[in-house]
Amino acid sequence: MAGGVGLTALLVAAARAIETHRHDSLARDVFAEHFVLAAPACADWPTRIQQVPDGDANPLWGRFARYFGLRTRVLDDFLLRSVRADARQVVLLGAGLDSRAFRLDWPADCVIFEVDRAGVLAFKHEVLDGLSAVPKAMRIPVPIDLRADWSGALAAVGFDPAAPSVWLAEGLLFYLPSTTETQLMDTVDRLCTGGSALAFEVKLDKDLLEYRDSPLYTATTQQIGIDLLTLFNREPRPDSAGSLTGRGWSTAVHTPFEFTRHHGRGPLPEANDALAGNRWVFANKPRS
Questions:
Q1: pLDDT digit string (tens) for 144-170?
Q2: Which residues pair with 168 in a beta bridge?
Q3: What are the backbone dihedrals phi and psi of residue 91, each rounded to the nearest 5 degrees, phi first?
Q4: Beta strands in 99-248 (DSSP E)
Q5: Architecture of the domain delimited by 4-284
Q6: What is the model's pLDDT at position 153?
Q7: Counting beta carbons within 10 angstroms of the beta carbon of residue 43, is it exposed (0 to 12), middle (13 to 18) or buried (19 or more)?
Q8: In the chain, where are the structural domains located?
Q9: I need a surface site. Which of 70, 111, 136, 148 has the fewest CB within 10 A?
Q10: CB 82 within 8 A of CB 286
């Protein structure tokens, strides 16, 4: 958790903590600040906007953190809609420090599979066990790297491809090589029966370096030492939404700004905007 993509999971946790303590919070995660405080690499990061000297004017802890809060709310809503319809299996790919198993009101017969590297899950377990946190549905950690046979690992712990499922790849795909993203989508399609759903986040920028001077990137580098542009995979990205559509899925592609306008808070477009290419994709596989 001390560097690389693991550190970005702590960044998102800090953003969720800040969102939780806002008076107009879009999403509440009472566990988020405990992840931040438990990791020496970020123990001095803010968990409330009042701890940031320039408050919401700060590009990182203001606008960027609000983006993560909005994303959390939108994807929470998507997952809960899906399990209240058909799906009873939830698969969180690259689950990171996601605490949805503990904080959302799931149907009693839901099963939540959290797929991530063993070290990340071990850190999360240590923090949550220290809080005596109890999941609100059956939770099954799947400690495996997504470059390995994660589908086999899922099957080994009880995932049933014949039953509807809902999948989430939040803040994941732009770190992966394009071939790995394609393989991941192929595998999800193969494991999904009719009535299943999927949400994921992509970046459509043809050249990420076009925004290297964006306040979001420069503030993140200067204030907490995370250079996102060195972590993102800069290969040409596959058209995963288009691929799913070609396989019969119904897909909807949205900008985050649409949800800002819907909820009345969150980031709006600005000049030299590192969020300009971000898209949230929602896909459903119809029953045959």
A1: 999 899 999 999 999 999 999 999 999
A2: 92, 199
A3: -120, 120
A4: 111-116, 138-143, 165-169, 197-203
A5: 3-Layer(aba) Sandwich (3.40)
A6: 97
A7: exposed
A8: 4-284
A9: 148
A10: no
